[in-house]
């Protein structure tokens, strides 16, 4: 990539670039919306506010799935330029990020598998990705039925842990890793 492109756009050992930060904060906002709908549904059930927030769950989940794949590719392309994670805590951070990425791929994959198995169509933003069929494929629905909900809340807990550790590092350790992503 050109030198001009690198200035501010790409990751450096000191800071994440604009593109990485854009992916991060865009996904954070979308996950906030996703989990708001899920928490509303679990806490108050099927109400108008739940349908308002949760009505976009499938489409937003698909958008997040595409974003996490793009972000993963972008992260791999920038791997040698990214800020380092040194020592035991650094290895713990790498492990935590791996868990986050794994869940961000697995949770929507299970939902898409379940959607396809249901025989119902799926057209995010009006673009048909899965046509309606007249039959179900039960074995494709079972993993999503069993795991999407629980792994989704595990993802929420992991995200909350991620946020907590960013603030702990900022306050207690005086290691401002959060500043690299702002």
UniProtKB/TrEMBL annotation:
Its main location: membrane. GO terms for molecular function: electron transfer activity; heme binding; metal ion binding. The chain crosses the membrane at residues 23-45, 57-77, 98-117, 147-168. Residues 15-182 form the Cytochrome b561 bacterial/Ni-hydrogenase domain. Its cofactor is heme b. It holds the Pfam family Ni_hydr_CYTB. Keywords: Cell membrane, Electron transport, Heme, Iron, Membrane, Metal-binding, Transmembrane, Transmembrane helix, Transport. It is found in: Cell membrane. It is a multi-pass membrane protein. GO terms for cellular component: plasma membrane. One of its GO terms (biological process) is respiratory electron transport chain. Belongs to the cytochrome b561 family. PANTHER family: CYTOCHROME B561, CYTOCHROME B561 HOMOLOG 2. This is Cytochrome b561.
